[in-house]
Amino acid sequence: MKYQVLVLDLDGTLTNSKKEITEPTRQALIEIQEAGKIVVLASGRPINGVAPLAKALRMDRFGGYMLSFNGARITKCSTGEIIYNRTVPREIIRPVYEYVKTFPGLDIISYTDTQIISGIRPNRYVEIESGINSMEIISVEDFPEFLSFPVNKLLVAGEPEVLETLMDPLREKYHGLLNIYRSEPFFLEIMPRNIDKAQSLQKLLNSIGLTADSMICCGDGYNDLSMIEYAGLGVAMENAQPVIKESADFITRSNDEDGILHVVNLFMRD
């Protein structure tokens, strides 16, 4: 099978522990795009956290795509056109916010194009999110009131054991309205209904006339499970969560050992 599309999660997958793309991996990804392959960056990050990596890979020149907010938004790199966009129902923001406030140490955040909006009080996990995306945190007094614009996702950040307590009641209450899952042990993603990476990749493939059989998806975290199961070839990093490795068709080297370069050399060279 000749694979035409390579889909890459970012943190823990494309980037190493320093949040960098190594030069050998960057060059290999440019080379396969020059040969006509399509690269897609699929991340829970907001668009401003994805765009610098897409630029480093010259995806604006070659026509790749960015799936930001776990696929709630798809952007075509060559034109900046948003080809798919789903938002959280506005009426759920306040009740979710009020519920999250009842748990100790949590923060709930969302995003403008350039800033992270903190609804309670930034904790160390929100600081991690700020560092990953190079975005300033601003705290607001009335989080739901401030979010007067369309919101692609909410993120609850805090200690894993607290998020574990919170997750099931939220899923039960908002079943049919929201998609709620962990991306990291300390991040709970609150997404529009039926939004995950696989659903959005299906939309993208339909729009460019390809099928999942032509696609490789690589990831390491819980929010990568759907696309790894959906892909023609699902690849887990050596550093992936156990459930991801169990579901994958192939396990590559870790993100600190150029695991994506290994995938490119094995499966994407004609």
List the helices and strands and how they pair.
Elements: E1 5-8, H1 23-34, E2 38-42, H2 47-56, H3 59-62, E3 65-68, E4 73-76, E5 82-85, H4 93-100, E6 107-111, E7 115-118, H5 124-133, E8 136-139, H6 143-146, E9 154-157, H7 160-173, E10 178-184, E11 187-192, H8 197-208, E12 215-219, H9 225-230, E13 233-236, H10 242-247, E14 250-251, H11 259-268
Parallel strand pairs: 1-2, 1-12, 2-3, 7-8, 12-13, 13-14
Antiparallel strand pairs: 3-4, 4-5, 6-7, 6-9, 9-11, 10-11
Helix pairs in contact: 1-11
Summarize the structure.
With 270 residues, the protein is an alpha/beta fold. It folds into 2 domains: 5-85 and 195-268, Rossmann fold, CATH 3.40.50.1000; 90-192, Hypothetical Protein, Haloacid Dehalogenase-like Hydrolase, Chain: A, domain 2, CATH 3.30.1240.10.
What do you see in this structure?
- With 270 residues, the chain is α/β, with parallel strands linked by helices.
- The protein folds into 2 domains: 5-85 and 195-268, Rossmann fold, CATH 3.40.50; 90-192, Hypothetical Protein, Haloacid Dehalogenase-like Hydrolase, Chain: A, domain 2 (2-Layer Sandwich).
- The protein contains 11 helices and 14 strands.
- The strands form 2 sheets. An 8-stranded mixed sheet has the order 5-4-3-2-1-12-13-14, with helices on both faces. A 6-stranded mixed sheet has the order 8-7-6-9-11-10, sandwiched between helices.
- β10 (178-184) and β11 (187-192) form a beta hairpin.
- α1 runs parallel beside α11.
